[in-house]
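Lab meeting prep.
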Amino acid sequence: MDARLSAEQEEIRRTVRELLIKRCGPEEVRAAVATADGYDRGLWTVLAEQLGLPGLALPEAYGGVGCSMTELALVGEELGRALAPVPLLSTAVLVAPLVLALGDERQRRELLPRIASGEVTAALAVPGTGLGAVLGLTGDNRGAWAGGGRAGGVQARRVGGDGWRLYGEVGQVLGGHSAEVLLVAAHAGGYARSRTLLFVVRASSASASMASAAGLVRVRQTALDETRPMARLELRDVEAELLGEDRGGGVLSALAGVGDGAAAVLAAEAVGAADRVLERTVAYVRQREQFGRPIGSFQAVKHRLADVYVGVRAARSAAYYAAWATVRGVRGERVGALALAQALEALRLAAAEGIQLHGGIGFTWEHEAQLYFKRAAQDELLFGPAHRLRGCTAEAAGVFGAEFDGEEVRH
């Protein structure tokens, strides 16, 4: 593995960072999350039309740029630094790869160019309280996370020839209140032939409580991290289109495949956020004085920040390797989940130390340090926690297999 970034990759990172410095400061972030959409549509338009970020990892045949998950992870790192409230994660990282993997040619040519151009945003709606299990990061996604038969979740029934109707409710849908396209996971077949399928629901970009699809109600929920807005969807006989073919096993495998890439991007986002917190904290301890000298000159403070620095550097290495491994199809090692665990821990440590070392202003609502701590906490709730990410990886690797007899591990 060559750890050096290419000139093109460095240019992508530099361009995104310069744009975000100009257009996505703390005040702009607060203003964006307070809007009905929950994100800055102007910034999203610039990122899409000028930089092509929604289609960065999509093939050129579908209007994309033709880059890989590595470039998307580099973009994620810069977005994480600014906590940029844009729907790149839900649209380009979660939904677009599923359409590419499962959709038929007509669906790909209809949806992917519109996603790549930024014309539409998309959201993945799956029952349950955590995306980690659905994406195969914290457990086997062949469990009962989507309900089954009449056991809750979202149910799908066939109407006529190829028509489908959805009924149920989904909470904690990232960007679900404003997305123009919804990708909804639902159970079909009842008890006799129960299987999980994905359906395309077309909804408008109206206000948080309105939608164009008949029977669909979307309500924006209060989120711990306001920069990742979430919604509750209520579906009452909503017209939907089956994504691809009726093959339940293929859907679960595709979700697990998307989980590898999503974990790499999420890890890079967390690394960018942690690096930004460390940068701000170092600048602050150099200025704040106690006993006639900057507090950054005290050995205890240096040691604490050194621990944060080591954690951020290690997490960046893990995130870059995860992105590299995803591009090369290295799935058996589950490096994405491990990288995400390390990055989330690095971000939580960096944010906690940042709040502590900022003293009385660190925990106030007006200071940006609390936003980074909330990002770490909500990402752990949605995709983690770290010990579950590592535990699932260890189980898949057979670490706790037959060699473990309860008393000792035979090497």
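Slide two material, second protein:
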Amino acid sequence: MSLDLSAVLPADYTRGSFIGRAQSPEGPCAIMLREGRIYDLTQEVATVSGAIQRKHFSGGEEIGTVDGGLPGGWSLLTPIDLQCVKACGVTFALSAIERVIEERARGDAKAAARLRDQLEERVGSGIRSVVPGSDEAAQLKEALIDEGMWSQYLEVAIGPDAEVFSKSPVLSTVGHGAKIGVRSDSDWNNPEPEVVLAVDSEGEIVGAALGNDVNLRDFEGRSALLLSKAKDNTASCAIGPFIRLFDDGFTLDDVRSATVELTIDGPEGYRLEGRNDMSQISRDPADLVTQTLSEHHYPDGFVLFCGTLFAPTQDRDTPGGGFTHKMGDVVRIASDKIGVLENTVTTSRDAPPWEMGIAAFMKNLANRGLIEKV
């Protein structure tokens, strides 16, 4: 059964422009949605990163309508290809507190429950009231150091430098409808519903999608040096359904005020609801992009996870045990002006293997006579 595209797009999709990717029988294609119609850009520009770099959002071969869905034999992919995948962490006060809890509990969910109220009372109000990198933030840092409450996570929460890390290799992300993976040896983990910014090589933010930056709280809680092992695993990064491009009807201000809703439906009937309110972010999204660029250059552009307010503390099975995923959980992330991203949880070990890396992608385009269109 073909995907009902209208069900994963925002209600005003006919007034917006969306770029993404689809798998055709011949290989990946760059596609655009404009005025409710689907266009294949591939014969003109073969990659989403190339289309963004050249601002090639018009033209293309019409291949259907949103209501009619993708052509037979086609399926939706993640909307990015050659872009680097970056992420910022600890960008909300609550996430900072939760990271301190993980660190002090050494990844133990039950120990974390005992620390939560204490840290929220002593640290939470202070973090919420200061601007990161300000004189007030520096004064709060000194006070917390004196109280023995300082942490590396508080440094990136209120210090001058944001946490920026590489989330996932080029071409490794999964899209709407795909299985999303957590490590099979993780006992404490959760989804992270986020807004993902699409940025060109000059640093211009051109649009936004939704993302799930799966987090292993036990791994990172044991040591921040395990961040890469906690974050970068097969199928552990989902982006979709499309990148909505900025225009008169959708701007960075819409990102700044976006609400990202999360629901998790477990195979045993469990349900968890949460939200990520971007208006509560501690660092402006544009500043996060600037800090990601820093002294770097991304010739194919990049996408940037902005972080999340969501940090589940609801017990799932045992009192004090907190939340962790079960195989078969359906994770739905939605935002009114961006769309819906839904994935089913499996282990990274059992997820479909990642097979189309850069070499395979280039060979596919070359065999289709498209290598000059990248």
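Talking points for slide two:
The chain has three domains: 5-79+359-373, 84-92+163-354, 93-158.
The longest strand covers residues 205-213.
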